[in-house]
């Protein structure tokens, strides 16, 4: 496979470098751990100092959520004298710094462009000690990031090598007409439909549309005194995309930093590529620059009448990464 050449080069460079402290500082420390001008220069060596400073300021902001605004994207494109597709390809290296892949050590970064023009970063996540099925691919992380920001649709996805089959299937749910452009280094843009012919899409199960635009389900908590975390999880559950199981669910993670990260359940017509609400909340937390150790509590909201439950998977994954965080499960009425 000629894909992931960038990542492989980086990986071989890492291996050659060994695990010396110097090597780690130069190549592996994610930006959230070392947001220095020096690291940014290593991640984006071709960029001007002006652009690197803009990005460094943004990723260091308290509210950074892995989103690069349309105006920042325009500014970066002007600074570097490149179009937005090229900018997205350049920013893959930045997205990749958020990768958490302790099992494969294969670090993947993706940049998605929403129809609003904003850009979204995502990186792959592997859960230590757990089955590989809990991994989140970088494409899924970046697309779920656009989803959590209420994009109306997705226009393009930039990745270092051709997306795997599982991702093509997941991307198809976000762009069921196959029109989303896949951007890869050294190639012109290609439509998803050209790399996923004969797609098994939402229509196979009778759906007329895919995950975008983000829609709200009717869901409400009983009682009057829901905690702020339960309210955040309810909000996430309300915007989940669960047309196949009809079982909306949302997770909110409380961080010791004071921030709350939400994840809305996103289903796939082929079922297995679906992302649980916890996986999406974790992707949000990681791309914001925080680590699992900061999770102090979690709430899962599910519909009372649901056909399926996210409870077991949420408990399992949470216990693996934040064993001291207490999980509260709340049911909501549809
Ligand atoms: N990976 C991606 O993130 N995207 C792809 O399309 C290919 C594979 C990740 C998943 C896993 O964390 C690692 O790369 C090895 O497969
Ligand atoms: Zn994939």
Notes on the structure:
This protein is α+β, with helices and mostly antiparallel strands and 334 residues long. 37% of the residues lie in helices and 16% in strands. It is built from twelve helices and eleven strands. The strands form two sheets. A six-stranded mixed sheet has the order 1-3-2-4-5-6. A five-stranded mixed sheet has the order 7-11-10-8-9. Strand 10, helix 12 (311-321) and strand 11 form a beta-alpha-beta unit. The longest helix is centred in the first third of the chain and has 13 residues, at 5-17. Bound molecules: tetrahydrodeoxyuridine and zinc ion.
Characteristic key phrases:
binds tetrahydrodeoxyuridine; six-stranded mixed β-sheet; binds zinc ion; alpha+beta; 12 helices; single chain; 334 residues
